Amino acid sequence: SQWQHESLKPGINTNLALIIDFDKGHHINPPSHLIPADYPIKVIGTKIKVNKISNQAIAQSPIYLIPKSEYSEELKFEQKYYKDQTFVFIPIKISPTFSEEKLEVSLEIFYQLCNEKICYAPKTETLTAEIIVNKNGETKLINEPTFLQLPKESMASLAPQEQSFGYSNWKFNFNANSTMGFLLMVLMSFHLK
Question: d(Cα 117, Cα 90) in Å, to the nearest integer?
């Protein structure tokens, strides 16, 4: 994984990039929301979720790259998948009053690895990442080649708007597209200031 910033200041928004590399001949499926409804075979979509995040920080829905499309002569349809390497970005907002010395994030990655012949049993892996929060210093962008991959029109590749945030050792998830989710986001914005 890579951070978009060298360190953070309270109130700065950043992204965490997950860089997923595959052995030659292997691939994973895109997340379910990027698999067409009329897809001719049943596949298990990749899912990345935030298990835990520091208090006074909010992780937004992952941003996935558009999957590769390739016609399979053997299966007689256009397959959608990620192969060689792909990136998934986790946008993160931290409060201007963030008081901890570092921001910590724990992610769960659920995926099914496949090759041209078979798909293996799905796996779940956990990844943790942290970044220093420097309250008085400046922050600078790093890992620019990675973050050039971040889609400019990322709304097209966003998962349904599930939001996660931590508060006092609790973790909350909600759908930001719902009325209740919108109200929670408004209330959180006042609390995090």
Answer: 32
pLDDT of amino acid 187: 65
Task: Return the closest-CA partner of residue 116 out of 67, 74, 66.
Answer: 74
**First vs last C-alpha separation in the chain:** 28
CA atoms within 13 A on the CB side of 174: 17
- Distance (Å, rounded) from C-alpha 73 to C-alpha 61? 35
Q: CB count, 10 Å around CB of 95?
A: 19
Residues 146-162, mean pLDDT to the nearest whole number: 61
Residues in the chain: 193
* CA 74 and chain centroid, separation: 32
Of 165 and 90, the structure prediction assigns the larger pLDDT to 90
β strands within 62-101, DSSP E: 63-64, 68-72, 77-83, 85-94
Q: How many CA atoms lie within 13 A of 155 on its CB side?
A: 1
Task: Specify the pTM.
Answer: 0.75
Bridge-based pairing state of the strands 27-28 and 113-114: antiparallel
Question: Tokens 């998962």 — which residue?
Answer: 159
Per the rule left: phi > 0, alpha: psi between -120 and 50, beta: everything else, 138 is: beta
**Do 177 and 61 touch, CB atoms closer than 8 A?**
no
User: Strands of 47-53's sheet, edge to edge?
Assistant: 47-53, 102-111, 123-132
